[in-house]
Specification:
Strand order of the largest sheet: 1-2
Number of domains: 1
Order of helices and strands: HHHHHHHHHHHEHHHEHH
Helix content: 55-70%
Strand content: under 5%
Distance between the termini: 39 Å
Structural class: mainly alpha
Largest sheet: 2 strands, parallel
Oligomer: single chain
Number of helices: 16
């Protein structure tokens, strides 16, 4: 790990790495638009096929599989949106919400907490909404993490179809919801109030999501939609979100026990998947295969990551902090996580640190 590297040497290495890729940070809007529109078109055509094909037919199954994969790819642009400046590609952000975010009940503004995932003060700690020390906890914690997948669509429906509008009328519920149900996280112990400056935006997308749910409820009560279609929608939503949930197991080592980490430590805790082309295209779209590279340079657009990776490898070689983040095989990374988890006794679980800090935070709010 890089903790043995003095801070001045770390800064020098990062500056040198930046100089290698400094011309690749410009976003090409045309690529973003074409990719999003193509992905959304495939997703919606496949969704119509899924809902209209004969029940149990091969065509229906293929529609389900393809719709989930295409929605997953289109949905991944939320990650790119969060790293854009406030006034950058505004219409792209709006289009993404209308094509993907509102229909899937996942407007991008709820992912704004992602920027904390790149903070030296938060990354790899209980204050990081996207980090759980699964490799430093018994296997049951990873199993619990995976078992959440089918519940995620129900949580989204309850959040926007019920809790959100009710909280407009009940201030205590609103305060609770803004701290406990208004951020996309994999760390269930993360609690932080949604920022006041973004709450007008939040109410707008909450209203749109409520309108979407209300439209389909009316179509069910007074139109052609049947309750079985809600079950089908749940299955599609769970399949879509589950792809990201499973992919996330190979985003980091998840072995940190709560200590603050340097920029280089973040890089080496993160994972580049450089092999398994067939799987990475499907499971790691929109630059997610270069997750360590993303933590090195969060502002690098996804369409430049392949070129940046090649340059960094050519410049630094195979014996460098960057190269040590590369892994050929997704399954090997996940197997490493499970292997480390099996070696962790229950009384030494790092999850207890997450739990204790979460309780301490709640007590602080009450007092």
């Amino acid at each position: 790990m890089s903790r043995a590297v003095p801070p001045d040497q770390e800064r020098q290495w990062i500056r040198q790495a930046h100089s290698v890729v400094s011309d690749l940070f410009e976003r090409r809007a045309s690529i973003y638009w074409l990719d999003l529109l193509a992905s959304a078109l495939v997703a919606w055509v496949a969704t119509v096929t899924y809902f209209t094909a004969p029940a149990g037919s091969l065509l229906q199954i293929l529609g389900l599989l393809l719709a989930g994969i295409a929605f997953y790819r289109a949905g991944t642009f939320m990650h790119e949106i969060i790293h854009m400046s406030r006034g950058e590609m505004t219409w792209f952000k709006r289009a993404w919400n209308l094509l993907v975010g509102i229909p899937l009940l996942m407007p991008w503004i709820l992912y704004r907490n992602h920027v904390e995932h790149h903070s030296r003060a938060h990354f790899g700690t209980p204050r990081d909404g996207e980090y759980l020390p699964l490799a430093a906890a018994p296997v049951r914690e990873t199993v619990k993490y995976l078992l959440q997948t089918p519940v995620l669509p129900l949580m989204a429906l309850a959040r926007f179809g019920l809790a959100g509008p009710v909280s407009w009328l009940i201030p205590p519920l609103r305060r609770w919801l803004l701290s406990n149900g208004t951020a996309y996280v994999s760390n269930p112990y993360y609690h932080k109030a949604f920022p006041g400056k973004e709450r007008r935006h939040l109410v707008i997308v909450e209203t749109l999501c409520l309108g979407w749910v209300g439209f389909w409820l009316a179509m069910t009560l007074f139109g052609p939609v049947e309750w079985v279609h809600w079950l089908m929608a749940w299955l599609l939503h769970a399949w879509t979100l589950g792809l990201n949930w499973v992919r996330n197991l190979a985003a980091h080592s998840y072995s940190n026990r709560g200590e603050a980490m340097s920029h280089l430590d973040q890089l080496q805790d993160s994972v580049n998947i450089t092999g398994q082309t067939w799987l990475t295209v499907w499971l790691f779209p929109v630059g997610l295969r270069y997750h360590a590279l993303h933590h090195l340079f969060p502002g690098l657009p996804y369409h430049s990551m392949g070129e940046a990776h090649q340059r960094l490898m050519a410049h630094f070689g195979n014996d460098s902090p960057y190269a040590r983040a590369n892994h050929d095989n997704y399954f090997a990374v996940v197997a490493r996580l499970f292997r480390q988890a099996r070696q962790t006794p229950a009384n030494d679980s790092a999850i207890s640190i997450w739990q204790s800090q979460s309780r301490a935070g709640m007590v602080a709010k009450e007092t």
